[in-house]
Amino acid sequence: MAEIQYAGEYIIDECILCTVGGLELNLKDQVAAISIFEDIFKNSITGNISFVDTNNLTANASIVGQEKLKLILVTPNAEDKTDRNMAINFSKNPLHIFEVSTSTNVNDRTKTFTLSFTTNEIVRNNRIRVCQSYTGEPAKEIIKKVIRDPELLDSKKEFYYEETTNLFKMIAPNLRPFDFINTVAKRCLSKEYNFAPTFLFYETIKGYYFRTID
C-alpha cells in the first residue's frame, strides 16, 4: 500500500467529462491541477480543474460550459474509494461545469484550459421554487424533505445534522430551496449547545451539513 508523502496528496482515480453531445472523455492523464473550495457560509462547493490539451478539445469536443464531470480522487493509502475520509467521489453525483476559461498556449501544439464547476443541486436551486407548508416538524426533517424531494433538489448526498429544539410551522412563499433552508436555519436553536442560534447549512465534499458554529 502506498503511503502519503505530503499534505493534500491525492491520486486521480477517475476523471470523465460528459459533453452535451453525449461524448464521455477520459481526461485522467490530461489533468494539470484541481482546486475545490468549501465555505460554511455557502450552500454549495465550487472548484476548477485545469487540463493540458494537445488535441484542441474545446473545439473538437464542443466544450461549452454545460458538461458534467465524474471525478474520483483518492489518497495513496485508500483501500475503499467510497470511504468519505479517504476519497472525494463524484462519480454517482457528477459535478456541473458552468464556465470554460480562455485557453493558454504552451507551445505550437499544446495549450491549457480550465473548467469551473459546482454541484448539480445549486443548478436545480436556481431553476425551481418551494411553495409548500410544513406543520409541527423538526427543522432537520423539513430540510431533509427539501433536499430529497425529486421535485426540488433531488439530492442523494449524505446529510449530517445537529438536533434543534424547534418544531416549526412554516410556509415557503415561492422561495428557492436554498433560500428557504437558510430562512429555517436562522430560526433554529441548538439542543446540544445551550440553545445556540448560529445554525448554518453548507456543503463539503462529504455531503450537506446543518449545524451550529458552536
Short description:
By secondary structure, this protein is mainly β.
> Rounded to an integer, what's the Rg over CA atoms?
20 Å
The count of DSSP E runs of length 2 or more, i.e. the number of strands, is 13
Q: Give the overall pLDDT as a whole number.
A: 88
Q: What is the beta-strand fraction? A: 35-45%
Percent helix range: 10-25%
H/E element sequence? EEEEHEEEEHEHEEHEE
Would you identify the regions where 5 or more consecutive residues have pLDDT less than 50? Answer: none
Characterization of this structure:
The structure is a single chain. The protein is mainly β and 214 residues long. 14% of the residues lie in helices and 43% in strands. It contains 4 helices and 13 strands. The protein has helices at 57-60, 120-125, 139-148, 177-186; strands spanning 11-18, 24-26, 31-37, 46-53, 68-74, 87-100, 104-105, 111-119, 130-138, 159-161, 167-175, 199-204, 207-212. The strands form 3 sheets. Strands 1, 2, 3, 4, 5, 6, 7 and 8 form an 8-stranded antiparallel sheet that branches. It has a 3-stranded mixed sheet with strand order 10-13-12, with helices on one face. A two-stranded antiparallel ribbon has the order 9-11. Strand 7 and strand 8 form a beta hairpin. It starts with 10 loop residues before the first strand and ends with a strand.
Write the layout of secondary structure elements.
Layout: E1 11-18, E2 24-26, E3 31-37, E4 46-53, H1 57-60, E5 68-74, E6 87-100, E7 104-105, E8 111-119, H2 120-125, E9 130-138, H3 139-148, E10 159-161, E11 167-175, H4 177-186, E12 199-204, E13 207-212
Parallel strand pairs: 10-13
Antiparallel strand pairs: 1-2, 1-5, 3-4, 4-8, 5-6, 6-8, 7-8, 9-11, 12-13
